[in-house]
């Protein structure tokens, strides 16, 4: 069970585009997630976005930097940023992403 949620208990079915950056010394990093038309923004959804929660067998990684993207006044997507401030944070995030990628058929490519 590896999943992403925007409201606790509600799995987001849309698979995001994820971009990673890392400092030269490897001590800090950033993951930027972009969800195009996520289910949480569906007009019939009444769920409140409280953050982005990355859940797996190790537990939860919580991200609070979550922003809506709008086109012509209509909700179009969500962008969420997760900042990793240590090597341990980076390693934990990468373990989550390896599990998430395997379950969702994602690949990794360097820029």
UniProtKB/TrEMBL annotation:
Membrane association type: Peripheral membrane protein
InterPro entries: Psb28_c1_sf (IPR038676), PSII_Psb28_class-1 (IPR005610)
The keyword Thylakoid belongs to this UniProt entry's keyword annotation: yes
Superkingdom field: Bacteria
GO cellular component, one term: plasma membrane-derived thylakoid membrane
UniProt keyword list: Membrane, Photosynthesis, Photosystem II, Thylakoid
Pfam families documented for this protein: Psb28
Subcellular location: Cellular thylakoid membrane; Membrane
NCBIfam families associated with the record: PS_II_psb28 (TIGR03047)
Family: Belongs to the Psb28 family.
HAMAP family: PSII_Psb28
Subunit field text: Part of the photosystem II complex.
Protein name (record): Photosystem II reaction center Psb28 protein
Organism in which the protein naturally occurs: Oscillatoria acuminata PCC 6304
Annotated gene: psb28
């Amino acid at each position: 069970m590896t999943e992403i949620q925007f409201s606790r208990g509600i799995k987001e079915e849309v698979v995001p585009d994820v971009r990673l950056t890392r400092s030269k010394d490897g001590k800090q990093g950033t993951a930027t997630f972009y969800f195009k038309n996520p289910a949480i923004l569906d007009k019939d959804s009444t769920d409140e976005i409280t953050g982005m929660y990355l859940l797996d067998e190790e537990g939860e990684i919580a991200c609070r930097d979550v922003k809506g993207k709008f086109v012509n006044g209509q909700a179009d997507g969500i962008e969420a940023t997760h900042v990793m401030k240590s090597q341990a944070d980076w390693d934990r995030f990468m373990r989550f992403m390896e599990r998430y990628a395997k379950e969702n058929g994602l690949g990794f490519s360097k820029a």
